[in-house]
Amino acid sequence: MTVHVIYGSDSGRTRAAAGKIAAKLDAKIINISDATAADFEGCDLLVLGSPTYGEGDLQADWESGVDVLGEADLSGKRVALFGLGDQSTYPDSFADAMGTLYDAVVAKGAEVVGFTDTKGYEFEGSTAVRDGQFVGLVLDQDNQAGKSEKRIAAWTSQIL
Ligand SMILES: Cc1cc2nc3c(=O)[nH]c(=O)nc-3n(C[C@H](O)[C@H](O)[C@H](O)COP(=O)(O)O)c2cc1C
């Protein structure tokens, strides 16, 4: 099975998480600033990750990256999402970028796998929550770094 992990990162936390996730999935890792439509298409499982910036925005490279995503044919493709955020400082837009990626891939016909429980996080609002669950894996390196290894291990086995 071919797995591609495509990520964007400003200060390196999402890059580090992408590396750990890619190691567990034996995946090729690609920075969204270098990604082409073929990188989205040429795999059996596509894993996309972004931190949230501004007030609920995508990471800067992802802002143009979603246009590349929009050129790709994702119909029927299994896609898993992960997002980094800070629930203490930004409780009203916690990991919102993952919700934006979710809407973008669903619009392209993808099948999103790897929803997770919101239990263990404290926040007020997030567009990454649908029907009571996160649409992917949420990591909070600012407040809950100690929980991330376990979360990554559980989630990568879930999506495999
Ligand atoms: C200016 C700024 C705005 C942020 N806005 C949000 C936000 O709206 N929601 C959120 O969950 N996290 C927010 N964060 C936290 C980052 O998403 C978090 O620190 C993340 O781990 C950074 O990932 P990176 O190191 O890959 O860039 C913000 C951080 C900064 C510096």
Please characterize this protein's 3D structure.
The chain has 5 helices and 10 strands, in the order E-H-E-H-E-E-H-E-H-E-E-E-E-E-H. By secondary structure, it is of the alpha/beta class. It has one domain: Flavodoxin domain (Rossmann fold). The strands form 2 sheets. Strands 1, 2, 3, 4, 5, 6 and 10 form a 7-stranded mixed β-sheet that branches. Strands 7-9-8 form a 3-stranded antiparallel β-sheet, with no helix packed on it. The site of flavin mononucleotide has 22 residues, from helix 1 and strand 3. Its cofactor is FMN. This is Flavodoxin. One of its GO terms (molecular function) is electron transfer activity. Belongs to the flavodoxin family.
Question: What attributes characterize this protein structure?
Answer:
7-stranded mixed beta sheet; Rossmann fold; globular; binds flavin mononucleotide; 160 residues; alpha/beta; 3-stranded antiparallel beta sheet
The end-to-end span amounts to 10 Å
Please indicate the count of domains.
1
Low-confidence stretches: none
CATH topology (level 3) name: Rossmann fold
What is the percent of helical residues?
Answer: 25-40%
Major sheet description: 7 strands, mixed
- Per CATH, which architecture? 3-Layer(aba) Sandwich
By DSSP (H or I, 4+ residues per run), the number of helices equals 5
Report mean pLDDT, rounded to a whole number. Answer: 98
Structural class: alpha/beta
Number of strands: 10
Protein name: Flavodoxin
Cofactor: FMN
Pfam family, one: Flavodoxin_1
Family: Belongs to the flavodoxin family.
